[in-house]
Design a protein that fits this description.
Blueprint (H helix, E strand, L loop, with lengths): L5 H12 L9 E6 L22 E7 L3 E2 L6 E2 L8 E3 L6 E4 L6 E6 L5 E2 L3
Antiparallel strand pairs: 1-2, 1-7, 2-5, 3-4, 5-8, 6-7
Length: 117
């Protein structure tokens, strides 16, 4: 049987690792910016002294919400790659696979703003 071969198992695990999450409606997938662990002088900061930054980079964007009366799609205001200001609380934490980084999903209305370059 072909499912008993080790090659099939390798292909299945590679397929699971290559999955891509595409948000629906007005949801936005964000990678949080990591706080610095060193001071400019080279001292290492303990985890208790590190602050949680309210900044992130947009990884993926949904197509947009639907207008309640007309049903037309209202496009999302942010684009992939933009830096955004996040609320202190909220969002849904998502880990796509073992050893993967943690991403956060927000609705467009929950974002506080974008940073200009």
């Amino acid at each position: 049987m072909w499912s008993d071969s080790p090659g099939w198992l390798v292909c299945a695990s590679a397929l699971l690792q290559s999955r891509k999450l595409l948000p629906l409606f007005d949801r936005i997938l964000i990678r949080r910016v990591v706080a610095q662990t060193k001071t400019p002088g080279g001292l290492l900061l303990p985890e208790a002294a590190q602050t949680k930054l309210n900044e992130g980079v947009v990884v993926a964007v949904g197509p947009g919400a639907r207008h309640p009366q007309t049903g037309a799609v209202i496009p999302v205001a942010v684009k992939t790659g933009e830096n955004v200001l996040l609320p202190e609380y909220g969002g849904v934490n998502i880990v796509l696979g073992k050893g993967e980084e943690e991403l956060v999903m927000y609705r467009e209305g929950d974002l506080l703003g974008t940073f200009s370059k």
